[in-house]
Inverse folding.
């Protein structure tokens, strides 16, 4: 049994990791912590966990975390992770970091997250934890930069056809819609029920901090500079991201069937991507509470419309983190997730 | 034109008062303030008001408020109102206070709101602003203690039949369900969308701070001590309170028709209470965005079930406050409200 | 492997049974049917099931169902079940009926469901499938009348203290709040999003068809006639029932701690009931997507307030049905459910 | 007083028209009808209208409607309007048709609405009722084809800059998100709360019936053939449409400020379009229950992102219909709407 821990166990993502790990057959949860007033069983904090996992959620103590675990999940705010990652790596622990701290080059990080990167030593060794693209590197990784929720939904929607060199890479539109838990569990008027319910808004229009992450990975795949137009929207629901991607085709012979074929080939053998048949598109409830990314494609004239759905807390965060752990530890990739 | 102002204009209640006043023909809004970072037009803060009312929302300044207004609405948190009410009264201004500061005897206030009352001088002159019960006193009042949302929905549901001395007053059950804006616009994890949506809870079970207010008014009406059993519940919607009241009948001859008759008589001539015919019950959408309190009644065996609905921001707060202003100023009671 | 089938597999309850059975280790799903236009894989109807269970959902054919299964779940509308139950029993199949057809005496059935009972022969052999009360009878049963969702939440909330003979049984108030899926998947304007969202209503006030079912079981437990006052309310959320029960105490010495003790004793060893400690009450999200019934209790003066929460599709329907199957077949009671 | 009537008064749009007309000072509602079981006061059907308008809602009778009114609103399903419009026009009544029946050329209509057009005589005289574009023609019109909700939000978002000839008109992306009432009040499983809540989907991807309507008007404005890429999405909320439009700029010198200037100029003097200042974008709640269309614009690189918000029942249907009536009848354009 691999001993695992979660730091930041009381956020939406942390809670979800704990829930998955509680049912995982190859690991034992030996440490949980969060910034809390009172140490108490995690199942007192989240009564839904009662009977399933009842260990104490502690106040954060990196040394204790290091001693008690072989692998640690960091479900922490940006800027906090990079303070403690080095300690775990030095102690030869595996780390899966769900913050943005290890996803970007330090120059870009500084621009988008407003702070100097404090762990330039380990930044280059971090592997971007998108298993459908970087499976081999994840296998060998000691530090995973777990992808953001929007990037997961958008990169998976574009990668197969970007690879085909079929599209005009200078004009990629990603219009994303997300449930509210994507913003984390926090006290914020803008996230309060009275503001979000019966309302709909675009926000950070083409200036969301996930944009450089999307650009970086797509550029790496395309082997040329990609700059997507990316508008996120906040939807009055808890969970789910649906991204509608508009791609201008270069290859005008490609029809819907060809495109679907390309997607199926690209994701052949990937257990968590499901490509829909012609004429069908996923809805977020098709993936709710699962680690799947479901994708539908339609070619119309010179445009391909791609719709991808994920559960932002699962494939968009906690589920993908466990998928990465499974690969790193040599477990079945789907263990605990299906 | 009466000059009116709102202190606390950016909360849900304050915003609603501003919206109503903007369309009110007998008053002119001459002052708005709130605890804000930057003074700007209220219509920049709430774009929906654009073109309808565009005056600047200032940082709070009691002296300016006093100079510029004849009547002031205080949409402030508890404990804050009582600090500034004396200044307005001294200057001969009319005050409608939407906090709980002037609703209870100071001993009871201390128990439920955890602070000494700081304005015992004016506390006795405050009139409880429930126009269906205290119309005459409101007419003469200089200081209104505007009722809480739950008390409004519960007192109006019970008063007609309490008056009839028809029920066992020792066992009154009020099971209330409220939308989220009743808790105010504030940063609070418990009010965030992710916690409230797809969830339902009872809270402060029989220990909500509105309980002594309900007891006080019902006791005054019944001329004996009343102690209701009161459980509020938080419902995933923005607006609306539905209270389901269970009353044990003493008068076993009373049937549904008799009860409805009693309610209709009690509220005859009251423009904002609508009694439903036999077999029909109100829903919160019947009163959404209105100042109505709709009531349905059913007698079954020895029990009367009364369902009352209000919009918590209207009849439960801002609408009732304007109704009180109309009565105090000699305007038509419905001006600006229908 | 026990061969099981589901008739009515495309309703909310049927879908949920299929989902649970797909992950159940002791059974094999060998038959699914529903009134559908086109026979296709259940995972085409519900894409979320893709990869988990892909067998064809057929148009209904009782003979085929009988041949292919050892045990059948009937997730059918009232009045339909009683037409086909006899055929399965005659063929020595086990039946778990989720409709109301076998829950009431035929006289009472006729009054509340508006039809003569057509299977009086088997009606008396049906066992009411509430395992926390009737575990032994369920073990021997061939036909289960799976309880209604409201009755499950209310009976479990009252039984422990009804047993203690501690309360005035003539005045029991059950105020229930339910998510919308409790009404089934159907085309009905009253259930449409535009009518339900941002709205709240009481309905069938003290005349809901679950009332005789609640009365029947509570009367059996108390060994005297019980007539609850029961008001259901429709809440704008998908899943969850919260029942707030008000009981008048006879035993005035009982305090909250005593009451909680009584509940804990009553449900000792029952895997799906969790009693909350003093001062805590369950919320529906604590039981969402689980088979738990969570209960909180408070004694205040001469009244006990009991709050119970279930997921209406799980403990209120599909989960409880599988729990019954587990008991009937000698499996672990929690198999497939935790 | 102009005598007005509404046929189809019980749908979402019809109800909204009635609500607006009830407060309109220049007209008198003299006729309401709908396909209903029982003729009763409209305020019994919609209790929220009680006291505001209480006339009987009749079963449909074209002759009675003709006799009693000077101007009629048809809030009917497609294909029904064209059966009765000729009768009203023949009797010299003014007609505002909210269906799609008079919005398209008959050839196009047949393709998208699956039926031959039955009133080719009047089809050419219908005026497309988008006052910000066709004010003068509306003034003289006897028959208004009231625009669809999506087209209103999209055309208003594009027209100012299409006019400037600033964009690549061959690649216009309109990604729209709509609340559920846009689909009308009807019994349909796909619109039921359980299907829509906590879910998000694209639907009719680039094949929604509003696409030819958008294309027709944009083509007329641009004086060249326009074919937008249009994907509508269903959002779990009652009211509101937000359209995010992506335009590829030809004029690379235009920055955000220039674009906003162009929008402000285009809509100068139009009372119901509000252009947001640089850096701000509208949310649907900014226009909820109003007839406004709020628009925000951002230029980034060679792309303009335009976000427009309307209330689908107001500016997207009933409000715009009344705005058209105001113009046709020579009333103040905003009468009853502000």
């Amino acid at each position: 049994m691999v001993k695992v821990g979660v730091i930041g166990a009381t956020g939406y993502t942390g809670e979800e990791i704990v829930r998955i790990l509680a049912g995982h057959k190859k690991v034992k949860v030996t440490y949980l912590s969060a910034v809390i007033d009172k140490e108490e069983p995690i199942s007192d904090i989240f009564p839904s966990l009662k009977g399933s996992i009842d260990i104490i959620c502690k106040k954060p103590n990196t040394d204790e975390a290091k001693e008690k675990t072989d692998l640690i999940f960091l479900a922490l705010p940006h800027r906090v992770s990079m303070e403690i990652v080095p300690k775990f790596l030095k102690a030869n622990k595996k780390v899966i970091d769900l913050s943005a701290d290890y996803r970007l080059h330090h120059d870009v990080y500084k621009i988008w997250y407003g702070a100097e990167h404090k762990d330039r030593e380990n930044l280059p060794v971090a592997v971007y934890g998108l298993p459908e693209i970087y499976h081999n590197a994840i296998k060998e990784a000691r530090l995973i930069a777990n992808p953001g929720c929007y990037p997961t939904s958008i990169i998976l929607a574009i990668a197969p056809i970007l690879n085909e060199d079929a599209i005009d890479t200078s004009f990629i539109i990603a219009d994303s819609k997300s449930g509210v838990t994507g913003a984390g569990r926090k006290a914020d008027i803008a996230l309060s029920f009275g503001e979000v319910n019966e309302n709909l808004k675009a926000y950070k229009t083409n200036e969301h901090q996930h944009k450089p992450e999307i650009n970086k990975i797509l550029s790496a795949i395309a082997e040329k500079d990609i700059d997507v137009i990316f508008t996120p929207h906040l939807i009055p629901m808890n969970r789910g991201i649906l991204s509608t991607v508009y791609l201008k085709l270069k290859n005008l012979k490609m029809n819907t069937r060809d495109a679907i074929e390309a997607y199926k080939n690209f994701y052949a053998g990937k257990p968590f991507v499901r490509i829909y048949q012609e004429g069908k598109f996923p809805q977020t409830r098709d993936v709710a509470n699962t680690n799947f990314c479901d994708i539908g494609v339609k070619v119309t004239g010179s445009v391909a419309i791609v719709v991808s759905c994920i559960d932002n807390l699962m494939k968009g965060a906690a589920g993908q983190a466990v998928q990465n752990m499974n690969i790193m530890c040599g477990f079945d990739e789907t263990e605990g997730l299906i």
Observations:
- The interface with chain A takes residues 171, 173, 175, 177, 179, 197-203, 205-206, 227, 229, 231, 233, 235-240, 242, 244, 246, 248, 281-285, 288, 298, 300-301, 303, 305, 307, 309 of chain D (CB under 8 Å).
- The radius of gyration of chain D is 20 Å.
